[in-house]
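Why predict the complex rather than its parts? Because the way molecules touch one another can change local conformation, and only a joint prediction can capture that. The input here totals 956 residues.
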Amino acid sequence: MYNKIKDLYQNTAQYAEKSVKIGGWIRTARASKGIGFIELNDGTFFRSVQIVFEGTLESSESSENSENSLNFDETAKLGVGACVTVTGRLVETPTAKQPFEIKATAIFLEGACPTNYPLQKKRHSYEFLRTIAHLRPRTNTFAAVFRVRSLASHAVHEFFQKRNFVYVHTPILTGNDGEGAGELFRVTTLKPDEKVEKNENGEPDYSKDFFGTKANLAVTGQLAVEPFIMGFRDVYTFGPIFRAEHSATTTHAAEFWMIEPEMAFADLDNYMETAEELVKYVINYVLANAPEEMEFFENWIEKGLIERLKSVASADFTRCSYTKAIELLQQAEKDGKKFEYPPKWGDDLQTEHERYICEEVYNAPVYLTDYPRDIKAFYMRQNEDGKTVAAADLLVPGVGELVGGSQREERLDKLEESIVHFKLNAEEYDWYLDLRRFGGVKHAGFGVGFERFLMYLTGMKNIRDVIAYPRAFGQMSY
Amino acid sequence: MYNKIKDLYQNTAQYAEKSVKIGGWIRTARASKGIGFIELNDGTFFRSVQIVFEGTLESSESSENSENSLNFDETAKLGVGACVTVTGRLVETPTAKQPFEIKATAIFLEGACPTNYPLQKKRHSYEFLRTIAHLRPRTNTFAAVFRVRSLASHAVHEFFQKRNFVYVHTPILTGNDGEGAGELFRVTTLKPDEKVEKNENGEPDYSKDFFGTKANLAVTGQLAVEPFIMGFRDVYTFGPIFRAEHSATTTHAAEFWMIEPEMAFADLDNYMETAEELVKYVINYVLANAPEEMEFFENWIEKGLIERLKSVASADFTRCSYTKAIELLQQAEKDGKKFEYPPKWGDDLQTEHERYICEEVYNAPVYLTDYPRDIKAFYMRQNEDGKTVAAADLLVPGVGELVGGSQREERLDKLEESIVHFKLNAEEYDWYLDLRRFGGVKHAGFGVGFERFLMYLTGMKNIRDVIAYPRAFGQMSY
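Output of the joint prediction:
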């Protein structure tokens, strides 16, 4: 049985002067004059442990592992990245930088690491590290990123499960084009040199393809999760989503994860309150459960990160209508503020506009509400004014839009009219209209791009650096 | 603010004689002689609440919702499936079947439900309900199934997070063919009437497709999660997986979820212990957190279900080598047992064989270990005998294989030899070999088909009845 470095750090006193056994990977190693030091990381904890070894290393012939036991000189030659098992005594070092170290009694080689190891001690560019996605979790930065990703993900589940939301695994394969939210990937089992034949009307005839109908990768889980509110009242989906956008910017990925809750007997206010609680819950969870990682981001990725997160976690999120935001922007323009795109009622807000409202006007998280109908999705609930819908986007300083959501149109006639208005294929949404035909209910929901949230939590600036194996236009490795 | 029925059941005394407000859907309704009864379900709890209404219903003119308020006759006409909001007084009924009822003071219509509602009170076949996947969560059976699915999913996360495993979101889009584990779906942005051209060597030239290379849907997350053990020691992935199998049986789906943990410094025994703990944890979690749903399955889906699950949760999982299993099967044959396929060393075990070993020999969960190399995956660790690998499948009574896993081959030369032996494309696995070239480590992992586990937990007999929107060969609706 191996001890875990996390446990040694958290219960040091209990292990003091006791024999421990740890397995891990060498981060740094040096030796001279009969004494050597290894920084060993076992993956259970962000911090490494200092191993001290001397000429007294046993060859441990009695061990089952004896052929792999190393003497002082062999240990001294171990390179960065090598995997070893160490047995030794834990010694408290209250005056040193680390609270304890391990005096090795025996060291066993698990896996050597030759000098062509791509991750030598020097710092590497993120761009280079993206080309070795299978090795970068061994670096400090990506060990921190992916642990925070795991914890944030669990925080999301905990938040909803505690509130009795039911997690629905919405499908990835879908015949629906999902509100026209983005470019679609098509899925097929036809051979690469086969194409879909046309039927007599000149339309694609999918009868020879796997599903006998068109199949796309989902661009949202929202439409599919919505029917479940009639079974469970409060539900959410959290899974991968696909957009075939032909751009490879720092914020675009072809595959990413979305959090999408949906709530019956809920209106726009209920959505905004729930999303605010979610954002705060995840921030607090990550700060509490990954303090070492968050300190690393603070020190190496973004100064002021922790203060920024703490202030959001304790802020009251404010609210401002789209219409008022346009007025504020136009007033700012009159007062000499320069925008690349002149703010105009009816146009979608540009990042420069969102940043001005969020960072210069409020300097706090702010919900922009009641957008013009024509720049939002067909299922959003029409307001009384006939021009706007009960939608709201949460803007946060430094990132812009973090959450988008709305109250949904529960009135059958209004929704039917919207399907025509937005020139959608009515037949494709017939099942969705059933939700209004049979026991319809006032409801609301929202979506959080999980990677954008992670960038906000970690300070990482490129979406490809918070995804295990990023996929984007022209970019996919194994 | 709405009260939740779950809360009313769990804290009945506290609400006694108080005014409450609940919103939900009518399961049954009847009225006569000035008194009516509604079974109302709000989705927060498996059980419904009895609403009693009389001629004294207020028209609630003062309410913002007044135009929707219903009098006695209007309420009496409400059909199954209609959505209403009820305000009333909670009255304890200690001598009745239900611990309390609500004496309605006002009832508001949220959404009517006309008589063409497909879910009338009578029982429907699962086959029919599959055609209305957007409505079936409103039935008792599917409300139970999908709540258990949500809870089991959360139990999986809790199990691993408590043990410091890091959750990795492995990619769905992959250029890898994943150990040849199944038929692949191809992903493309070429138009349906476009095909992939061939290059001068006659091979598909993907340069005009989105990624510039072939792109498939993942058939496993295992290979992609494995590198993360070098960053975190213990990791898992839990997400959708795709197999384009041209069969539509009760156990095949084109899209399903897999739980795939991977552990460094771990051998076959460690895998078996961890998987045993996981299975027990999830069973206990579901029994504790969904007692009403589990009782429903016991009464309506499978008699003896709860006893079966409890016995597994308290059993010591036993172990039996593949070689010994073959001997037992052959002995049984000599003793007169008839098998459709004669058991023979080197052949894969058939379901009839697995059931005999598991149900007739042991009548308990049993790990079959050390399978012949040639019927298992290339990455499994070769045993000393040169014929078998350190693999194990967990068989459980009634279902057969529930978990499959192995110790992985950490020796570079052996793994290289296996890639040749299994006629795989060495170039495609070069990155995977890096995990053995640089700081390799003894490790093990396993996979659990989440739907199969759910069928085991609920007694449901068709995989399509534990998936929100099932996809299979020739079958996909919206």
